[in-house]
Amino acid sequence: MMTLAPATLPSSSSSDAIFHTDVLVCGGGVAGTMAAVAAARAGARVMLMERYGFLGGNATAGAVAQFNSWQTANGRTVVAGLAQEVVDRLRIYGAAAAHERFVMSTGHRMDRVAYAPEVLKLVLDDMVSDAGVLPLLHASVLDVQREGRRIVQLRALTKSGIVAIRPGVLIDSSGDMDALRKAGASFLELEADEALQPATMMFRFGPIDFDALEAADIQALARRGYEEGALARAALHVARDPYSQDGWFNVSRLAIDATDAMALGRAEIEGRRQAWSAAKFLRHSVPGCADGRLQAFGTQVGVRETRRVQGEHVLTAQELLAPVAFDDAIAAGAYPIDIHPAAGGELEYSALGEDHAYQIPYRSLCPVGLDNVLVAGRGISASHKALAAIRVMTISMAVGQAAGMAAALVVQGAGSSVRNVPVPRLRAALLDAGALLA
Ligand SMILES: Cc1cc2nc3c(=O)[nH]c(=O)nc-3n(C[C@H](O)[C@H](O)[C@H](O)COP(=O)(O)OP(=O)(O)OC[C@H]3O[C@@H](n4cnc5c(N)ncnc54)[C@H](O)[C@@H]3O)c2cc1C
Fold this sequence. Notes:
This protein is an alpha+beta fold. The protein contains eleven helices and 18 strands. The strands form five sheets. Strands 1, 2, 6, 7, 8, 9 and 18 form a seven-stranded mixed beta sheet that branches. Helix 10 (393-411) packs across helix 11 (423-432). The chain is globular and about 60 Å long. Bound molecules: flavin-adenine dinucleotide. Residues 27-32, 49-52, 57-59, 62, 64, 66-68, 140-141, 173-176, 178, 200, 202, 250, 302-304, 377-378, 391-394, 396 line the site of flavin-adenine dinucleotide. This is FAD-dependent oxidoreductase.
């Protein structure tokens, strides 16, 4: 068994504060937070670092506001575990709507749970506190030290200066895979006919008379708004905030590489411009919205896709569509392939069959060439098309839970590397914890 010092407070005399921890989770989006909670509940000492002062990533800072796709089209549940616990805890705060089916902007039917993004921050705080995770907020990756196949140290830039963290296992859940980038890991390329999915500036608008809005021909209005140049895409997709008469709108479209600092900054500005234009269109042209005003922007543009790591297995769209049954499946999903194009008003969406669910293999969480690193969330090893399905928050949370449990097994001596974790034991532990694998 690997011997590791506990997560310790640094000595004030050292120039860089140094922490030792079993598991370091880098990035506190929904995937990273579930990974941290799962690892801590499994007995590991866990540190969770996050660049913002709150957790959630796209789910809070990006204000996505609805967890999509818990079930197959015919209503078989395929995601539960910690993801369901998040919803249960939101309900205690009165901040999650009922599980429901709704019609997407594409005209397809989908299931979801809408929630209040601000309250999700509290729920994630509660979960990490209850699990005994040590949070390091307002901490951005500065650099990573690698020795051969192991990451031995990550340094973070914080308000109190540089902090060095020495983990037994690192989980990169930064969405953009910033830690792995600095460790010189390998990443997957886009194919010639592919482009990164665009980012979106979510915005909150209200009050809305939702009965009047739901009775309107939203698709025709959205098409009109797009043709008039008021909307950047032909959609008026909205999730109702359970706390108010407001809705969070997903309308803007920003074709950028969000790992390019200059492009990201420009997208924040252009995203607010597009949101303002859409809010004006809502107020003047959409039933139920005449009394509404733009109330808030997301803290940052929501980012659908950036880097995807090269893992031991690259999950493909063909495998999801077959679907292939994996011996090392650690999560399941039923969200269809949903590609927002970088330009133009339409999106590519292929609905799945009635009882169609797919699986995610553990090997897609294991980056090639590294023994003590796992990935979770939207940066896992999957093709561009496969990621367009598995990127949703339900599946990101399920994958995060699996990564956390696997990391705990490694630091407890059940594998000398992430690659030889006893997968049957990992799967059994996930099932015991209420996760679904098929
Ligand atoms: C506009 C939009 C609409 C969407 N709609 C839906 C939907 O309706 N339903 C659904 O279920 N899913 C939806 N998704 C997908 C889903 O929101 C994301 O794929 C999912 O939230 C990804 O979670 P994650 O934890 O992997 O990554 P992220 O949410 O990106 O989290 C990464 C975390 O790492 C932190 N971080 C990043 N870099 C660093 C660094 N260098 N140092 C420290 N911390 C760092 C970030 O601040 C963040 O907290 C949507 C996404 C977008 C963008």
